[in-house]
Amino acid sequence: MAAKTTHYRVGNGDMTLFEFESGATLLADCSIRDAADDPDDETADVASQLRSRLKRDLHGRPYVDAFLLTHPDQDHCRGLRNHFHLGPPGNWNKNDDKILIKEMWSSPIVFRRASKLHCLCDDAKAWNKEARRRVAHYRAYRYAVDGERIKILGRDVDGKTDDLAGILVELDTEFSTIAGSFDLTFTARLIAPLLADDDVEEDVLTKNESSTILGISMKSNLVEGARYLIGGDAEAGVWERVWDRNKERKYVLEYDVLVAPHHCSWHSLSWNSWSDYGEDAEVSADARDALGQARPGAKIVASSNRILDDDNDPPCIRAKREYKAIAKDAKGEFVCVSDGSGDAPLEFEITSGGVSPKKVLASILGANSAFATSRVGAQPLGHG
Question: What total number of domains does the chain contain?
Fold first, then answer.
């Protein structure tokens, strides 16, 4: 099957389905609003759109091979309890017909940084409970079946993850396993979260600053077709630290498709508040460099509401201008998932020739858009 990604219309939220050439699926975040479940509401029924793309296992259960939660804000995990099976896989109920998560991908840091100022919503609490259940299962048995699997993204402090080597992904390492199987059609690299160091106090790092940042290489016929960069709601301070860590190896941050962090928020590009400073707000050069490693023809995608020239943030018109400038320099394009008519999601198909928008994008991009006819030029596997 052809590799592709689907970016759902969830307003200011994130929900992206990666379908690798092998057929394995990775869902990065979800935001299924109550209105999306109401047949009388015009909000896009993203749950049905997602389910239509999923397969069923031998037990008749719809599933995703992996579910990545970049961080536990409501607009990244909304709808989890209503649409996904939580608990032992043997308890799956045919009448509920919820989606089985074969493997959870989760950082241990984000929940430790919850506080009175950063309370977890009920869906985030449910994710946390399920993650802890799966970790306890691994500690008890040292193996897991589908529905019990978990991948821990990054080390925790004080040795809390030292006994989890079999399910732990270290910072700056690459992996090509999903749901217990090695998969030649993708490689993912863990870029963040970064633990606090001597220059960064632990209590400064909020949920957004704890967002998982992944680089994902999608392959076609064993040739790299596209590199994706996703970063949840990571803000400028994190991108500055990421740049400092990777500026001598820029290939780590290169992308053919960037999902603009924090729904095209100015906070990912600047320490200055857009509402306070307006056009006087200064761009963080290091954050922009981290987010500016666009390869030729790169696409920058805003998973947000429509971006208007107003005081809103997110999405922010000034951030849009910065991303458009980055894309222009790469002879690429910027697009907002919410633009255009209808409720169809944004889709890209990945081949050894690069990234191609699917025909469904016509309503968003227009028949004469350069984006609609451009292709990202693929490069062979390797760094640089």
Answer: 1
